Amino acid sequence: MLKPPVLLEICAGSVTSCLAAQEGGAGRVEFCDNLLEGGTTPSYGAIASARDQLRILLNVIIRPRGGDFLYSNVEFDVMKRDILACKKLGVDGVVIGLLTADGDIDVPRTKHLVELAMPMPATFHRAFDVARDPFKALEDVIVTGCNRLLTSGQEASAPDGAELISKLREAAGERLVIMPGAGVRLNNIAQLVSETGCVEYHTSGRVPFASNMRYRNERIKMGGPGQDEYAIVETSADLVRQIIAEANEAWEQVGRVD
């Protein structure tokens, strides 16, 4: 029999985007702040608001800063406290990723966070994509007790890394869900489904929305160079629906069976 429909996880940078993901039919949200830095932990208030309003699964990234994934003891303490806050708020899962200085998975500390999060499941995020050896890293992630691995196949985007993603899925078997992410778009989701055989995918589904500000001081810039101060980039419910439809149509054409 055909496997169930593809599950789309939306990387949402605001409560507004979380709700758009839900409206569009996403199965799960990965809630992040600071998407331009690859995602950091949202505020307690934002997580609480999302939890109160979402009916779909809510995962929260546990990442105290942008940059690398080699964390100090102070940062590790922050991560532990954020996991406990997520547990208190009734979050469905956490998203973590820690490496050693030599580019391996930091198994002891990752395992500690996984155990602290229980019974919430844990996803290991794209810290994996800068690990030294992908197949050793895969086995290490499995040892930590993580339930899912988000990866671009150690390339700039999942379409570029599709070959490795497929091999990782085969190597993981039933031990771990492999979820392609990074550069997943409406125009390539069908090809990814065909090339990787994965049933979960990760994207932001974001588009720019014009600000409602009537008065605009164009001399002042609060964001990074080239950033449009009067455009708000949020997840589009309509785009989410289109990506899901395209992915499921591709899955039916592939006709993969259990």
Short characterization:
The protein has a single domain (7-254), classed as Alpha-Beta Barrel (TIM Barrel), CATH 3.20.20.380. 37% of the residues lie in helices and 17% in strands. The protein has helices spanning 15-24, 44-53, 73-89, 107-117, 134-144, 162-172, 189-196, 237-254; strands at residues 7-12, 28-31, 57-61, 93-96, 122-124, 148-151, 177-180, 200-203, 206-210, 231-235.
Tags for this model:
TIM Barrel; alpha/beta; two-stranded antiparallel sheet; single chain; 258 residues; 10 strands; 8 helices; eight-stranded parallel sheet
Describe this structure in words.
The chain has a single domain (7-254), classed as TIM Barrel (Alpha-Beta Barrel). With 258 residues, it is an alpha/beta fold. Helix content is 37%, strand content 17%. The strands form 2 sheets. It has an 8-stranded parallel sheet. Helix 4 runs parallel beside helix 5. The protein is built from 8 helices and 10 strands. The model has no long low-confidence stretch (mean pLDDT 94). Strand 2, helix 2 and strand 3 form a beta-alpha-beta unit.
